Amino acid sequence: MQLALGGSLRREVTLTFRSLGYPISIIAAGLLGLTVMRNDFRWLLLPVSCFFGLTQLGGRCGIAHLNSMNVIWRFGFRRWVMSVGVYTLAGLVSSSMVGGGIGWLGRIFLPAQPSTNRLGLVALALLASVLTARELGWLQFDIWERKRQTRPEWVHQFGWVIASGLWGFHIGLAFDSVVTYGGFWVLVGVIALFRDPLFGMTVMAAYWIGRSGPLWVLPPFLHGRQFKQSQAYPLFKPIHALGLVSITVAIVARALI
User: Fold this and answer.
1) If we measure between CA atoms, which residue out of 201, 189, 174 comes closest to residue 251?
2) What pLDDT band is residue 243 in, cutting at 50, 70 and 90?
3) Is the pLDDT of residue 16 over 60?
4) Rounded Cα distance, 182 and 144, in Å
5) CA 72, 165, 223: angle at the middle one, nearest 5?
6) How many CA atoms lie within 13 A of 243 on its CB side?
7) What is the pTM assigned to this prediction?
8) Which of 100-114, 151-165, 196-210, 232-246 has the highest mean pLDDT?
9) What gap in Å lies between CA 46 and CA 34, rounded to an integer?
10) Per-residue pLDDT tens over the stretch 148-184
11) Which residue, 1, 12, 26, 216, is the most exposed by fewest CB within 10 angstroms?
């Protein structure tokens, strides 16, 4: 059964995530300045990847897995740590594989020419701008995704710990499940354009750390309570939009330099 958050808890959670906007804005501004000065995406892309991963908690799979970990928390600390740990490690493996694969495909199919890179950056800037408008509510459209979630029956077949690992590995594949916010596709484009499998593995690993990190933090404070996606989705939109704005400006700066 899915329980709604109480009024006081809802206000507390809302204020907590809204207050994240201030330090995130400062960090993003500083990293954006370093990106422009050094003409190096790495200063900005890894933390933005973490932000993008964090905001996926507002999606269907993110909320479902948070609710599952809240349930496991009530069964004891040891089982919760084992479940979240297996979930994190399995997703880290699959997401790193995906990032490396994207970089490898970029190396094969995208020529390493300055003109190609510049056109690619312009296309990515346009994509990021459109996705930013979507998150700010100026445009409304569905992003491409496979409308598929992890299978809840795995917990009955394999138990909580193994099921958590299967959930993490499946979600870490990224392309095989729902994608709530569009920044993921900007990351895919950047990894392909850089044509570096190791860089792609690092970016997607950062994305996964952002995605799995809240499962280590929130359950002890929620005491088994359950989120609804309708409550979580609007809390993460500003963070995601901020990340998109930052990466859009950095892409444009790199294309012009």
Assistant:
1) 189
2) confident
3) no
4) 9
5) 20
6) 27
7) 0.84
8) 196-210
9) 13
10) 777 778 888 899 899 999 999 999 998 888 888 889 9
11) 1
| Token pair listed for 181 | 């916010």
User: CA 217 to CA 128: how far, in whole Å?
Assistant: 30
- Mean pLDDT check: name the lowest of 21-35, 119-133, 197-211: 21-35
- What's the per-residue H, E or C state across the chain? CCCCCCHHHHHHHHHHHHHCHHHHHHHHHHHHHHHHHHCCCHHHHHHHHHHHHHHHHHCHHHHHHHHHHHHHHCCCHHHHHHHHHHHHHHHHHHHHHHHHHHHHHHHHHCCCCHHHHHHHHHHHHHHHHHHHHHHCCCCCCCCCCCCCCCCCCHHHHHCHHHHHHHHHHHHHCCCCCCCCCCHHHHHHHHHHHHCCHHHHHHHHHHHHHHHHHHHHHCHHHHCCCCCCHHHHHHHHHHHHHHHHHHHHHHHHHHHHC
Output the six-digit token pair for 230. Answer: 């309708």
Query: Which amino acid is residue 19, in one-letter code?
Result: S
- What does the alpha-carbon distance between residue 178 and residue 27 come to, in Å, rounded to a whole number? 28
- pLDDT on residue 5: 46
Q: Which amino acid is located at 230 in the chain?
A: S
Residue identified by tokens 């700010």 is 136
For residue 222, what are the contacts with CB-CB under 8 A and spacing of at least 6? 9, 70, 73
Q: Which residues are CB-contacts of 17 (< 8 A; sequence separation ≥ 6)?
A: 235, 236, 239
Neighbours of 138 (CB within 10 A): 9
Tokens describing residue 165: 């690992």
**Range with the largest mean pLDDT of 13-22, 40-49, 111-120, 186-195:** 186-195
